[in-house]
Predict the structure.
Amino acid sequence: MNNELKIQWFPGHMTKARRMMEEQIKLVDVVVEMLDARIPQSSTNPLLLQVIGSKPRVLVLNKTDMADADATEAWFNKFKSKNLPVIKIDCATGKGTKQLLALIQQAAKPVIDKWLKKGVKNRSIRVMIVGIPNVGKSTLINRLVGKNKTAAQDRPGVTRGQQWVTIAKGLELLDTPGVLYPKIENPQTGFFLAVTGAVREEVYDRETATILLTEWLLNKHPDALQNCYNIEITATDTAETVLGKIAVARGYLKTGGMADMNKVYPLILKDFRSAKIGKFTLDEI
Ligand code: G4P
């Protein structure tokens, strides 16, 4: 990549979110980490493992409806081969959310066994959901809580405004998710996070992100670009010429016939984020 996408993080927000997550994790027995199936590697942060310690962790590959199915399967198998409890879900339809409860219960077994040895019976397993911004945490919580909302209980140790909700027999969920900021180890990670919508547009340059994305699509999925925008791509095309062709195809022209890039950039980003161009996975194994 010759062009780099710089992300201007707000360290203050991140430190606050990390502290809050650390406090919340102390209260729970099992942590559910949500990953974006389009970026299973870039949507995590190794810091989480340090905070979790020896507590069981369940991995959830979300937004599978927008990812490449073969790549999702490969990532799923990779996590499985490391003996990590993992599940593929799609919060848009709720697919997989029921099986998630069973997986959490399974992951909690060592904790329950430990309690039984100490003579502790009938104690509920406490769970929280963590993940990067926009990965689908609130959507999943709403799906799991659903009609159980009325079963919310007040318990000590939880910040005001947070509640434990019984989501299955012996399973209580903290109704506020933990926000985990991703670790941007290289410019590519920043680019992946930006184009999937994990970071807000104010913290990066939209033009650079769109050009990089078009370059990526041109290299990996030129057919998808052609079909989505009804354009002809030739061997000499670059990201810039492709964007120009899309502008012409859409009639996004300024007076004088120049392409109006201020209309093209948001279009590409929006269509990519909603998987209109295609179902793609950015992180390769
Ligand atoms: P967060 O709490 O982790 O920040 O994420 P949140 O649940 O708010 O979800 C972020 C966006 O992702 C929402 O869309 C949500 O609908 C969408 N989303 C969550 N899970 C899935 C999924 O599995 N598949 C798809 N296709 N989308 C998912 P939004 O555009 O912000 O809002 P809206 O479309 O719900 O209005």
Notes: The pocket of guanosine-5',3'-tetraphosphate is lined by residues 62-63, 65-66, 90-92, 131, 133-139, 177 (CB under 6 Å). The chain has two domains: 11-179, 205-273. The first helix runs from residue 11 to 26. Residues 205-273 form a domain with the Conserved Hypothetical Protein Ylqf; Chain: A; domain 2 fold (CATH 1.10.1580.10).
